[in-house]
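hey so i finally got around to running the thing on that chain from the lab meeting. sorry it took forever, my laptop kept dying and i had to restart like 3 times. anyway pasting the input first so we r on the same page abt which one it is
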Amino acid sequence: MTEQAPTSDQAPAQDIPLPASPLAIPDYRRFWLARCSSVFATSGMVVVLGYQLYDLARGTYGMSIRAAALQLGLLGLVQFLPQILFAPVAGVVADRFDRRNVCAIFTAIDVLVALALAVLTLCNALTLFALFALAATHGMVRTFIGPAQSSIAPNVVPAALMPRAVAISAMAWQTGSVAGPALAGVLFGLDHALPYAMAAGLLLFATISLARIRRVPPPPGNAHAHPLRQMSEGMVYVWRDRFLFGCVTLDLFAVLLGGATALLPVYARDILTWNGHAVGAYGLGVMRAMPSLGAAAVGLIIARRPIERDVGARMLLAVAAFGLATVGFGLSRNFALSLGFLAALGAADMVSVFIRNTLVQLHTPDAVRGRVSAISGLAISASNELGEMESGVAAALFGATGAVLFGGIGAVVVTVAWTLAFPELRRVRSFSTTYADPG
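ok and heres what got predicted. didnt touch it at all, straight out
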């Protein structure tokens, strides 16, 4: 079948000039600020959560390195299970209700999660059960935020500015991911409850920013359709569209295998050293920030000069580079060199994410965009959270280094396999291409 070229849902009239930047659009600016602050908050919160869990397992519960590493894998699993349950529902919610309100309501729930973590930490009442329960709640919240948030930008930004809008949005994500873990590590060293208090304040700001965006009504016809039929329509749409299916599953399997970040607490506490001492929580914050620092640097370049040619081939090469950088990190025992590999890993991932997100958003009609975004978000979450589970189990079996090497090599193998299995991906030349499925 042949898909039509992407068209704008909010295309401007011919006599209305386009703004120079998406940030000149007030609603996009509010969306960008909300995204930046929420990523800043949650990325720092998740880093501290993982370190606290690993330290609690090793210290209070007296677990071995491998047993504590398995707890990190279980942490990823408990964040992913709610997403399996709620992702189809979240996609329907994003297509049936005002997407701005959906994001604001669930971001407010995340404020409560951060406050609960702050109070439990301050009272020295954290247990493994409490950490797992709050992590699961956070996973559920992000499941509902993701599809609605991904669908807002195409509703407030003209199609001609979407590649630049995606790049700026990704840069916001990466900027928050750089500063969030780094600052959270510093605050954790001062007082263990401070990172969670900071996260609660930033998430409250994000909630207010989202509420100020103009109303984003659901696409016509979705409000009265049967929810179960809408769920199946979204899944069938992705399954039948080989281009979308290839994009979604490429990220799923590559990052599922290549996720080294889940094991960073192991490297920080028991493997990497600086001046003869373990790099600890401060080192963990720096390590978690490095992939985002590399990605932010690339994001700045893309925001100024977006990738426009041979986008499919570049996406595949970026995923392969991600796998090779993961292998380099796994082999390194020098802290500075390890930081360099993590930055390279993030830079490669940024190229892949930018191209894939732009293609998926422009390739999907607005009527099913929420559901397709939910499926794409589920794949991303599966690659992240299940990747953490895979890394934890592999570390328990082969050690942390063996797990990272296995994942990096696996990501390269997946890239080669998808290049052969989905020629549609490597044939894409630009974002305005009419995509054809030869089958």
